[in-house]
Design goal:
Radius of gyration: 14 Å
Structural class: alpha+beta
Oligomer: single chain
Strand order of the largest sheet: 1-7-6-5-4-3-2
Distance between the termini: 31 Å
Strand content: 35-45%
Order of helices and strands: EHHEEEEEEH
Helix content: 25-40%
Largest sheet: 7 strands, antiparallel
Shape: globular
Number of helices: 3
Length: 135
C-alpha cells in the first residue's frame, strides 16, 4: 500500500472540488472527464510525462470527507501494466486549523510499480496543495 499525507492551506470543501470538478482536477493532474457519483466514470490524462491516461470509477463519495475510486492505466505501448480498475485510491479529508489534512492510500499496486507510484503521487499532491491554496 502507498500512503501519503499532506497539509493543505484550504478547507475540505475547496480540496474536495479538486477531485470532483474536471476544471479543477485539470489544474493539478491533467485534463479530466468526471462523473462524481458512486459508479461514475473517472478519466484523466496526466500532463506530467508522456500523456498517460488513467481510467476508473468512483466507488465512494462522502462530501468533504472521503473520495474513493478505482485506478488503472489505459493500455498504451510503454505504459505500466496496471489495467483500468485494478487498483484503488482512497482520499480522506480532515479539517485542521487553517486547512485540511489529506491522506491518500493507493492499494493493489504491483510491487514493481510501487516506487514510481509513490513518487508520482508526491509530485501531484504537491501540485494540488499549491493550486488549492490559491483558490
Amino acid at each position: 500500500m502507498i500512503e501519503r499525507t499532506i497539509q493543505i492551506d484550504a478547507p475540505p470543501e475547496v480540496v474536495w472540488r479538486f477531485f470532483t470538478d474536471p476544471a479543477r482536477m485539470a489544474r493539478w493532474l491533467g485534463p479530466a472527464d468526471l462523473d462524481p457519483m458512486p459508479g461514475g466514470e473517472l478519466t484523466f490524462q496526466l500532463t506530467d510525462g508522456p500523456g498517460l491516461v488513467v481510467r476508473g470509477h468512483f466507488t465512494e463519495l462522502r462530501p468533504y470527507e472521503k473520495i474513493a475510486f478505482t485506478f488503472g492505466w489505459e493500455p498504451t505501448p510503454g505504459v505500466p501494466d496496471l489495467p483500468p480498475g485494478s487498483s484503488q485510491v482512497e482520499v480522506t479529508l480532515s479539517a485542521q486549523a487553517g486547512g485540511t489534512l489529506l491522506t491518500l492510500r493507493h492499494t493493489s499496486v504491483p510491487p514493481n510499480l510501487a516506487e514510481n507510484t509513490y513518487t508520482g503521487w508526491a509530485g501531484f499532491l504537491h501540485a494540488l496543495r499549491a493550486e488549492a491554496a490559491n483558490v
